[in-house]
Amino acid sequence: MEFHKIAWIGTGVMGSQQAGHLAKNGYSVSAYTHKYEKLLELEKEFGIHPCKTIAQAVEDADAIFVMVGYPSDVEEVFCSEGGIFDSAKKGALAIDMTTSSPSLAQKLYEMGKERGIRVMDAPVSGGDSGARNATLSIMVGGDQKDFEDAMPLFSCMGKNIILMGPAGSGQHTKAANQIAVAGATAAYTEALIYAEKTGLDPQKMLAAIGAGAAGSWQLANMAPRALAGDFAPGFFVKHFIKDMKIVKEESQKAGVELEMLNTVLSLYEKMAEHGMENEGTQALIRYYREEEK
Fold first, then answer.
1. Which of 35, 38, 145, 174 is catalytic?
2. Does the pTM of the predicted model rise above 0.90?
3. DSSP for the chain?
4. What is the average pLDDT value for the chain, to the nearest integer?
5. For 124-156, what is each residue's pLDDT tens digit?
6. I need a surface site. Which of 82, 96, 162, 268 has the fewest CB within 10 A?
């Protein structure tokens, strides 16, 4: 299937860059977000067509991407009056790239089948830098044929693109990803705090351990930002809390107790209580430092 017209719903830190890559690769991209002024900036930067409603954005679109904040936002975008299911043409491919609920992904897939709209879940990992550099990992749930059709589009945004299984499988994979990220984030934060308290040069410490068994993407990319006091949100604290709560709900359904995840979730909930919900996940070091005072 050839795609000519693309609709993009949700142009936040990552979505704006992903939509931009599609436009730069020659696709005609129409976009909708709550802040219309943001779309005017994207029109100037990438040539994206700004739209004032979802219906206007998805009309005649061959493929529709969704990248919003919470599962409730996803459901609203798909199911509300004037939303995707109301407004998209039959045969359109609707791809939700939000980190959302696996059960919601399965529900939207079934609703899409009833309406002749092909729905996939395709959450991503790689943060703002991955979105900016088109190197995201994309974890996909859906039908094989739809995945094959979407590959040229996914390839504009990412490098590691894998069909994980039927609808909901992409979201389950992202849940596993967030479990690993939670552990890695807490680990590098405590390593930095330990280095500071024992008189080590934290920069040298990162250089020393980063090439060994402790090395990770989080250690290489986020620990230096934490150390530099750069807490700009590549990924918001509030969204990480949302993700970990989804993981907790899914793990409880599976009869699994994730003790490390529960601990890290508790730390981030305390950060939110201290007014840090709109900072990046690397701001965890601030919480540790403030607790010491």
1. 174
2. yes
3. ----EEEEE--STTHHHHHHHHHHTT-EEEEE-S-HHHHHHHHHHH-PEE-SSHHHHHTT-SEEEE--SSHHHHHHHHHSTTSHHHHSPTT-EEEE-S---HHHHHHHHHHHHHHT-EEEE--EESHHHHHHHT-EEEEEES-HHHHHHHHHHHTTTEEEEEEEESTTHHHHHHHHHHHHHHHHHHHHHHHHHHHHHTT--HHHHHHHHHTTTT--HHHHHTHHHHHTT----SSBHHHHHHHHHHHHHHHHHTT---HHHHHHHHHHHHHHHTT-TTSBGGGHHHHHHHHH-
4. 96
5. 999 889 999 999 999 999 999 999 999 999 999
6. 82
